[in-house]
TrEMBL record:
This is Acetoacetate--CoA ligase. Gene3D superfamilies: 3.30.300.30, N-terminal domain of ligase-like. It comes from Microbispora triticiradicis. Transmembrane segments: none annotated. InterPro entries: Acac_CoA_synth, AMP-bd_C_sf, AMP-binding_CS, AMP-dep_synth/lig_dom, ANL_N_sf. Keywords: ATP-binding, Ligase, Nucleotide-binding. The keyword ATP-binding applies. Residues 88-458 form the AMP-dependent synthetase/ligase domain. GO terms for molecular function: acetoacetate-CoA ligase activity. It holds the Pfam family AMP-binding. Its EC number is 6.2.1.16. PANTHER family: ACETOACETYL-COA SYNTHETASE. Belongs to the ATP-dependent AMP-binding enzyme family.
């Protein structure tokens, strides 16, 4: 066992001098400790975020309106300003290497910034020919390939709105997302390769397109060599003609992309982020907390369905080379990503905490990481043993940055900074501009105790809205229902007296498998469509950086048995319609699903019971409609 808080790394004077945040602090005239600068950043947000705009020389016009108008949940930023994400991402010397792509078969492509600009210009012209303009939506069903990055930047350059899903998602999950935003164009692959196998998605693409009546075109990317359907333009058709690259400057809060985060009821939440908020947040976070800039090679293992893809692309804003990878993290072996990092001279390596834990358990000994300065870990909390493994096996000089945030803000609000030491299981700090506190149930701020992670002041990368939520009611209900005027994120956190943080996982019941968050309601829509299933409950037992087991409990209709055939059909449906990550490890029959008097499934109490909490402590039986069924979920039942 590794003791939580054990010191593993301290910045040397040379590291502190070289850190990009040090130069920023010197420009501001701040000579104090990091915690002093953090306090200033959250207590004087208008001055802080203006300094970010000025320090990085953001391209655009700032206008003469107030920096912040209003309070959460209705805060507006930089009134009167105009800018474009793509214009800021694509600035710099055209000869520098901007993007490198690798896949698990060994293919490698490299693009200079000038080449990326030309490809963006060509795809932008193609989108215009398809009728895409300001405010239109472009949806993509694509893996982490250069075409995804190029299409996103082309979409953003027009002031159109991007949204993407990974091609391992099934058609119902994709249409649940894309149908909400009514895209004009769908960009899709015919299939993908993963773990050494090819997966044809041609029919899935046709099914998705058939359920999106607003589409004018489906652009076909032939990753597996399939012919495009009759009349469908190919990727080569889309990029066939060149036109000068232009950028539509839009208001600060103009929608940039739609991401999705699911709760326990209803369709996935379509979260809209604005151009300005993402530009400022990603410049700040990537440059000061990940310490990225020109000369760095930035990698994060992700799919296009996870917000970390959007964060990875943000490396272009910081001037780094972005390394894209399409394929399995463990093919042909668990060491695949470490080998990739060595071959590409990666300086910052990001992954999910479960990959670090899996590497530790497999006894992996990474080699050749001579240029590696930082390692990012996110998706779930990394246990102290994972921290210690990095320093014993990867290298004693790397800066391990456990990072926690969410799709909701498309960043981390607690994470690393090169000015502070690394201690096992502890996230070093609250990020600049993120007013993170821990609340007890009464709404009092607490230190040294586990409480609800809340944000007490607005951040510019908070959603500008949810799509199709004109009243803002769904947005308010998602974050502000428990503590009026304060954002409740849904994580357990302990803030230490020195500003360090420990995350203890989700305080709600959203499923988090391999870094992909998916609401249980999506799971139930698949399972409960089976006529044999009367009711169901899904529980993810993962905690503290380790992926747990995904357990499905079903109550069967009268006269039905939980046969091998039914189990096989359930697994196939979940794999096909959700994703391979969401196939249950175990399926059990129970006599009933515990519900409150108002009919809500008791997911969180059942999870507590499965993890060892006594039944009578996990739930209030008096508040239940059927308390007698709880005992069936006890481990010793």
């Amino acid at each position: 066992m590794v003791e939580e808080g054990a010191l593993l790394w301290e910045p040397t004077p040379d590291v502190v001098r070289a850190a990009r945040i040090t130069r920023y602090m010197e420009r501001l005239g701040h000579t104090g400790a990091y915690e002093d600068v953090w306090k200033w950043s959250v207590e004087s947000p208008a001055d802080f975020w203006t300094s970010i705009w000025d320090y990085f020389g953001v391209i655009g016009t700032r206008g003469d309106g107030p920096v912040i108008r209003g309070t959460m949940p209705d805060a507006e930023w930089f009134a009167g300003s105009a800018l474009n994400y793509a214009e800021n991402a694509l600035r710099g010397h055209p000869g520098r290497t901007a993007v490198v792509f690798r896949d698990e078969s060994g293919s490698r492509w490299q693009y200079s910034l000038g080449e990326i600009r030309e490809e963006v210009a060509r795809v932008r012209a193609g989108l215009v020919r398809l009728g895409v303009g300001l405010g239109d939506r472009v949806a993509a069903y694509v893996p982490n390939i250069p075409e995804a990055l190029i299409a996103f930047l082309a979409t953003a350059s027009l002031g159109a709105i991007w949204s993407s899903c990974s091609p391992d998602f099934g058609a119902p999950s994709v249409t649940d997302r894309f149908a909400q935003i009514e895209p004009k164009v769908l960009i899709a692959v015919d299939g993908y390769r993963y773990g050494g196998k090819a997966y044809d998605r041609s029919e899935v693409v046709r099914e998705i397109a058939g359920k999106l009546p607003t589409l004018r075109a489906t652009v076909w990317i032939p990753r597996l060599g399939a012919e495009a359907p009759d009349g469908a333009p190919s990727w080569d058709d889309l990029r066939a003609e060149f036109a000068p690259l232009e950028f539509e400057r839009v208001p600060f809060g103009h929608p940039l992309w739609v991401l999705y985060s699911s709760g326990t009821t209803g369709l996935p939440k379509p979260i809209v982020h604005g151009h300005g908020g993402i530009v400022l947040e990603h410049l700040k976070s990537l440059s000061f907390h990940q310490d990225l800039g020109e000369g760095d090679v930035f990698f994060w293992y992700t799919t296009t369905g996870w917000m970390m893809w959007n964060y990875l692309i943000g490396g272009l804003l910081a001037g780094a080379t972005v390394l894209l990878y399409d394929g399995s993290a463990a093919h042909p072996g668990i060491e695949a990503l470490w080998r990739l990092a060595a071959e590409e001279d990666v300086t910052y390596f990001g992954t999910g905490a479960p990959y670090i834990v899996a590497s530790m358990k497999a006894g992996v000994k990474p080699e050749g990481l001579d240029r590696l300065r930082g390692i990012g870990s996110t998706g779930s909390p990394l246990p102290p043993e994972g921290f210690a493994w990095v320093y014993s096996e990867v290298g004693p000089g790397v800066q391990l940055g456990s990072f926690s945030g969410g799709t909701d803000v498309c960043t981390g609000f607690v994470g690393p900074v090169p000015l502070l030491p690394i201690r096992a299981g502890v996230i070093p700090c609250r990020c600049l501009g993120a007013s993170v506190e821990s609340f007890d149930p009464s709404g009092a701020s607490i230190v040294g105790e586990v409480g609800e992670l809340v944000i007490t002041r607005p951040m510019p990368s908070m959603p500008v809205m949810f799509w199709n939520d004109p009243s803002g009611d769904r947005y308010r209900e998602s974050y502000f229902a428990d503590y009026p005027g304060v954002w409740r994120h849904g994580d357990w956190i302990k803030i230490l007296p020195d500003g360090g943080c420990v995350i203890y996982g989700r305080s709600d019941s959203t499923l988090n498998r391999g870094g992909v968050r998916m609401g249980t309601s999506e799971f139930y829509r698949v399972v409960e469509r089976f006529e044999e299933i009367a009711d169901s409950l899904v529980i993810d037992t993962g905690q503290l950086g380790q992926e747990g087991r995904l357990l499905l409990f079903v109550t069967l209709a009268d006269g039905t048995a939980l046969s091998d055939d039914l189990i096989a059909r359930l697994r196939t449906a979940l794999r096909t319609e959700l994703s391979p990550r969401h196939v249950p490890d175990e399926i059990h029959e129970v006599p009933g699903i515990p519900r409150t008097l108002s009919g809500k499934k008791l997911e969180v109490p059942v999870r507590k019971i499965l993890l060892g909490t006594p039944v009578d402590r996990a739930a209030n039986r008096d508040a239940m409609a059927n308390p007698e069924v709880l005992s069936h979920f006890a481990p010793d039942h």
